[in-house]
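Q: I have 304 residues here and want to know how they pack in 3D. Can you give me a structure?
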Amino acid sequence: MIIAVIDLGTNTSNLVVARLEEQNVDILYQGKEYVRLGDRQIAENIISNAAIARACAAVTRQVRTSRKWCADNIRIIATSAVRQAINRYELTDAIKESEGIDVEVIVGEREADLIYQGVRLALGTLPEPSVILDIGGGSNEVIISEDGSLLWRFSFPAGMSRIISQFPISDPVSNQEIVALEEHFLEVHREAILQCRQYGVKTLIGCSGAFNTLTDVLDGTDPEEVFRIQKQVSIGEFESVYQKIIQSTTSERVLMKGMDLVRTELIVPALILARTLMNHTGIDKIVQTGYSLREGVLWEMIRH
C-alpha cells in the first residue's frame, strides 16, 4: 500500500509518500511547499486570505504529486496555525471542495504523540531519558521518553512565527532581546524544564525545520539536500552554529551555505529556545532527525 501524508504546518506544507509493507516503511518521495500560514495575522489567530490561497495551491500541487506516485490513501494533517485560527473552516472547506479530501485538524497532544512515533521510527526505543523537541511556527512540542515509553508530553502555543510577531528582533539580534526571549521561553516552557529535571534527561532529540537547518549549516550542505535519519551533534558544534547565527544579519544568513530561506528570521529565536532548554536541564548530548509528524502517521498506520 502506498500512503501520502501532507503535514500542513504553520510555515511549510510537508509531503511524504511511502510504501507500507507489513512492519516496514519505504520512503518514496519527500518534498515541501512554503505556505506561511503564520504571517503577521497569526497574532490574531487569523489565517489571512493570501495565506489561504498559498496553502490551497500548495496542497493541490502535493496531492497531484501524491497521485503521480499512485498513492492509495492521501491524508492531510493540519496543526497549530489551523487549529487555533478562528476562520480555519475557510481553509479546510476550500481544500475539501478542491481535492475531495478531509483535512484532519489535530490537537496539540495528538501532534506530540505523532512526533514521538515518528522519532521512534527513526531512532528505535530511546533507552535513556530523552527529550524530543519539535520547534514549529505555531507551537513547540516537547516529549520525554525512556525505554520505549512516553513519559510526558505537551504542546506549547509559542512557535517561532508567533514569537517574531510578538517580540521586536533587531538585525542582528541584540543582547537585551536575547535575554528577553530567554526569559519568555523559561516562563512559557517552565513545566517542560521541570519535567526534564525530574526524569534526569541528558539527551535532546531535535526534529523538523530548525534542527534540519542547524545540521545543514553545520555540514555545509544545501537545504533539504541531505535527509538525515539521525545525526549526532556535539554541544560544541551546536554552540558554534548558534554563535554564527546569533551574530549575523538577515542578509548574511541568506548567503550562508545550508540556510533554508524560509528560516532566515525564524532560526534566531528557535536556536535561542533550544539553547535555553539545554542550559536549564543539563543536556549534554544532541541528536538530530528528519523524522517527525509525517513519519509518525506512517508508523501509526503500519501498526494498525
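Q: Anything worth noting?
A: The radius of gyration is 18 Å. The longest strand covers residues 24-34.
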